[in-house]
Amino acid sequence: MVELGYTLSCEEHPPNRLVEIARLAEDAGFGFTMISDHYHPWIDRQGNSPFVWSVIGGVAHATRRIRLGTGVTCPTIRVHPAIVAHAAATSAAMMPGRFFLGLGSGENLNEHVVGERYPSADIRQDMLEEAIEIIRSLWGGGYYAHQGKHYRVDDARIFTLPDEPPPIYVAVSGRDSVALAERAGDGMVAIHPRAELTHPFAKAGKPRYGQLALAVDEDEARARRLAHELFRFSAGGWKVQSELPNPINFEAATAHVREGDVAKDIPCGVDPDLHAEAIRRWVDAGFDRIAIVALGNLDRFFELWEQELRERLHSLAA
């Protein structure tokens, strides 16, 4: 069975609007939301980047049913894993049974701000695995000390814990990250609909979260322009996304990207069949939890969802 959710894009909306969108997603019948965790937006045009843990607190009190998870948080450089463990435990206590923790190895865009060296991908993966060990240990209760390869924890205890620890879903993009997620995670998160990413988790019966963008506007040309303005940062692929340090670098790196290049991956307009087909591609790639981020007119998106798109996708949830 496939569950459909909604992605709260911290890069595109101020905090109070994100809380409002979460409530709209709950009212529209989405089963879960995912929220990005950035210090910077990808490009200046997006224009926002509120502190994710404050927004999660707002969503916890504004909603009653919908689940919420980070998509994803990096617990390695900008924020020590002991602090992420603390923040996630509080979030899970505020949303009993409704919070999950998505973790990834991060992007230079956000991690360089504290002045630490941004390491190579293999070291970042090693740091992430150690961070997950620390987080799970602190959730176990009692005082905890750790002296590892990358981190030290000195007699720390989280006093406010949820009744049950939240699941951890690990971001994957290739063979090494898939192997890490199999070892250390309860499931996976990905931003590309590739079956080789989901296959090991499908065999194990673990959740496979995916995130995709749709651009919604009555004027298809305007939707294409908006998709290009807001999402062209993704055109270079993950190796580029993870390495560039500032929005201005993404502006320069994607100056050559055309509207048509972005529209190949992001359906634009209000044709429900077009959007449904894009979602089905993720289902065909093995994802069983798919979070949509709508670019453009959100009121029109939720109207399209409730009146036409949800019905077309009903068979996926059967």
Q: How is the secondary structure organized here?
A:
Blueprint: E1 3-8, H1 15-27, E2 32-35, H2 52-62, E3 67-70, H3 81-94, E4 99-103, H4 108-111, H5 121-139, E5 144-147, E6 152-156, E7 168-171, H6 175-184, E8 187-190, H7 195-204, E9 208-216, H8 220-231, H9 238-241, H10 247-253, H11 259-263, H12 272-284, E10 289-296, H13 298-312
Parallel strand pairs: 1-2, 1-10, 2-3, 3-4, 4-7, 7-8, 8-9, 9-10
Antiparallel strand pairs: 5-6
Helix pairs in contact: 1-2, 2-3, 3-5, 5-6, 12-13
Strand content: 15-25%
Please name the CATH architecture: Alpha-Beta Barrel
> Helical region count?
13
CATH superfamily: Luciferase-like domain
What is the share of helical residues? 40-55%
In CATH, what is the class? Alpha Beta
* Overall mean pLDDT: 95
The radius of gyration is 19 Å
Tell me about this structure.
The protein is of the alpha/beta class and 318 residues long. It has a single domain, classed as Alpha-Beta Barrel (TIM Barrel). Helix content is 43%, strand content 17%. The chain is built from 13 helices and ten strands. The chain has helices at residues 15-27, 52-62, 81-94, 108-111, 121-139, 175-184, 195-204, 220-231, 238-241, 247-253, 259-263, 272-284, 298-312, and strands at residues 3-8, 32-35, 67-70, 99-103, 144-147, 152-156, 168-171, 187-190, 208-216, 289-296. An eight-stranded parallel β-barrel has the order 1-2-3-4-7-8-9-10, surrounded by eight helices.
